[in-house]
Amino acid sequence: MNPIKFIITISILIFFSLNSNSQERINVKKKVFKVTEEGYSDAWKNVKKGNFLFYQHRPASYREAIPYYKNAIDYNSENAELNLLIAICYLRSDPKSEALVYVQKAFDENEDVHPMVGFFFARALHYNLKFVEAIDEYNTYKESLSPNKLKEQTPIIDKYIAECEFGSKLKKKTARVIIDNLGSNINSEYDDYGSILSADGSSMVFTSRRGAKGDLVNLIDNKYFEDIYSSNLVNDTWEEAVNIGKPVNSDWNDAVVGLSEDGQKLIFYRGREREGDLYSATLQGNTWKNIHDLTHKLNKRKSQESAISFNADGTTAYIVSDIDQDSYGGKDIYYTMLDENGKNWSKPVNIGDVINSEYHEASVYITPDEKTIYFSSKGHNSMGGYDIFVSDYKYDSWTTPRNLGLPINSPDDDLFMSILMNGRDAYYSTIRKEGLGGFDIYHAILLGPEKPLQLSNEDELIASIAIPVEESFIEESMQIQYTRMTIVKGTVSDFNTGKPLESSIELVDNKSGKLIKKTNSNINSGSYLISLPSGKDYGFSVNADG
Predict the structure, then answer these.
(1) CB-CB contact of 331 with 364 (8 Å)
(2) Contacts of 118 (CB under 8 A, 6+ apart)
(3) What predicted TM-score, i.e. pTM, was given to this entire model?
(4) What region does 342 belong to: left with phi over 0, alpha with psi -120 to 50, or beta?
(5) CA distances (Å), 317 to each of 70, 95, 260, 337, 491, in order?
(6) Are 404 and 390 in contact (CB under 8 A)?
(7) 356-388 pLDDT, tens per residue?
(8) What is the residue extent of each domain of the chain?
(9) Which homologous superfamily is 3-171 in?
(10) Which end of the chain is more exposed for a tag (fewer CB within 10 A), N or C?
């Protein structure tokens, strides 16, 4: 199961576990709904079409029911049941924040419209960052429950209350960051996520469910299966993303999980509903070739590895897996090391309970120097869904994870954070009301701790980004601990003809004589890119046939 569908499944199961305690159907009654003869017939047809989809209880059917219900509500906007149905559809699809206006209307019209209306009201407030009000509604809902239902639902509701308490603290001081949607050249009306960039930030690969000609549709959520897309940054603008095609993309799910620093090697997940493995591909010219199954290297039997991140020399991999061994809860983050021969990976080791929580962890990104890790989790001090956290490796242990806070995180799912080597530019995926649809990919510029400013117009600019308060709940999270890296890039060409050459490039630590890195230039362009820790003396050799 890939990460996005894993998220959808978890959220729907939570709703079903609550709804199982209340079997009352939400009925829009004809006599109450009808207010005038004019328009009634068409409006009622829309109610019935919406109901048909709603009671299929699938993510896709909730989303598809919304336009029918909204057509009907144009006829009678005061109907409590219809407003509640629309609210629930949004809460079970996206954007969830849209639910508030409808559940508020339902609640105002009839507080007894449904036994769980208070719960849905609390959820909508939660998704709209109204944390204090949401806590009140969660507690009011708990007070309405019978002893048996209270015992069953308390763990879930208390988790939501804790998220609101964390969110309320995070809301008091927003992170100093500038966030931009990457726009229609990258994002679409469908889910787009999992962006990974080359070390210099000039190329990107990501996963999309926008579909291409002949693509199949997943019957569970009625979305196209995943495909991998790529784009290049030209004159500070991302080119229109293109499907990288076969042999990487297949008829089933194909999702990017890793990319080498030079953008020449791709690690991707391929699978169906409940099975899948990791594969690698190499960019030869402009075409991805040499597909290799990593089953016997990184994939472990009876487990699913849904995300991976490598250190600078590719000898240590950090993976998200549902391996049962030493798990702290659901999917955890593990690390595995490549042997000296560069052929076999060690048995995965759980990174520990400082990083992994009793809840699910999702995406992972390790900085090349392995001193900072970014990951998404439903645990720790999440304000709701998956939040992005950061931890630094100090004194042989990981520091307590820090929530990156608002506006990077939200009460919805925030995933797949990756950082460029400058430690300033980040890319991640989230669902926002202003987005193009579903998950979108965003660019975040991490501004770091606030510094004294000299010009008044600069004061006004920064004041619009971050609200200064005394409490320092997340300030440290923007202080990126990063070993300075140097990017070496160039082109190998024939001295006589000037034509690009494919060549083998080796870098050696002159002090130790150890081979640090080995890579190949692109067969078509002759280009290469390597990142290295600064402050060392390196030897550099280039070898080509002929």
Answers:
(1) no
(2) 107, 137, 140, 141, 144
(3) 0.84
(4) left
(5) 48, 34, 12, 6, 29
(6) yes
(7) 999 999 999 998 888 999 999 999 999 999 999
(8) 3-171, 178-478, 485-543
(9) Tetratricopeptide repeat domain (1.25.40.10)
(10) C
